[in-house]
Amino acid sequence: MSATTDLQPGRSGPRLSAAVRRGALPWLILAVVYALCVIASADFLTWHTIRLQLIQAAFIGLVAIGETLAILIGHIDLSIPWTITLTGIFATNLYAAHPHEWVAFGAAIGIGVAVGLVNMLGVYVLRVNSLIWTLSINLMLQGLTLIYTNAAAPTTVVPPAAKFLALGMVGEIPMAAVLWAVCAVIVIGALRFTPFGRAVYAIGSNELVALVSGIRLGRVYAAVFITSGVMAALVGLLLSGYSSQAYLGMGDDYLLPPVAAVVIGGSRLAGGEGGYGGSIAGAMTVILLEAMLITLNVSQGEREIVFGAILLALAFLFLGRSRR
C-alpha cells in the first residue's frame, strides 16, 4: 500500500523537492566554503590556485568513486591508504626495471583487483564488518609494503604517462580533472541507468530483499570493492607522477577525506541513499577547506580535529534526516 501511495501525484511533488534539496545541499556547502576561502585569501580567485585545487580534488574524487559505491551498499573501504602506497612504490619500481608503461599500469590494476577481491572475500563471504576487515587489510598492506621496501627502496623513476595524467594540461584544464570528469560521467551513468546501479541501491536499502529479488550479491560486492581497489591503485600512480617519486606514507592522507567527501556529498552511511554527483562537490569541499585552514596557519593536529568534527556533525545530520 505504501509503495502505491508514494507514486500518487500528490506525494510525488514533495518527494521530488526533497530529492532536489538533498542534491543541492552539497553544492551549497561547496559555495559557502569557497566564499570563506576567498575571504581568507584573494588568491583563491586566481586560475593558478583554482587549477592546483582541482588537481588535488581529482585525487580525492577518484578515490571517492570506490568509497561512494562501498557506502551506497552499506559498507566502507579503509584499505585505500596503503593500497595507494604499495601500488605507487611497486609499480614505479617495476617500471624502473622494465621501462614499459603498460607494465606499471598493469601492475597497478593487478594490485587494485587483488585488494578488491580480498575485501569482497572478507566482507561478503566471511561476513566480517567492513570497517574492521578493510582497516585490517590496510595494516597488512602497510606491513607488506615495509617488507618490500626493505628489499627494494622506492625509486624516482616514474612512468611519463603517470606524470602527464597528474600534471599535464588540456588547454587550460588539468589532465587530472579531465580524467576525473570522464570517470565521474561513467560512474554517474552506471548508477542511474544500469542494472548494476539499481542493484547497488537495492543492496544498500535492504540486502535481504535484494537477494530475494534475484540480485546476485556476490557479483555486486566484487564489482564495488574491485572498483575501489583499482581507483586507489590508479591514484597511487598519479601521486607518484605528481611528486615525481613514490614514497612511504604517500597514501596516509586518503584514509578519512574520501569518506568525508562522500558524507558531505549527501550519501547515507547506512547505504541506499546518495550518489556520486554529491561526492564530486564533497571532494572539492574537502580540498578547499584544507587549503583554507593551511592559509590560516592552522596546525596539522587542529586540522584533523576540524575534519573529524565536521564528519561527525554531517553523519548525525544525515542520520537524523533519514530517520525523519
TrEMBL record:
Keywords: Cell membrane, Membrane, Transmembrane, Transmembrane helix. It is a multi-pass membrane protein. Pfam families: BPD_transp_2. One of its GO terms (molecular function) is transmembrane transporter activity. InterPro entries: ABC_transp_permease. The chain crosses the membrane at residues 24-45, 57-82, 102-124, 131-153, 173-191, 220-242, 278-299, 305-322. This is ABC transporter permease.
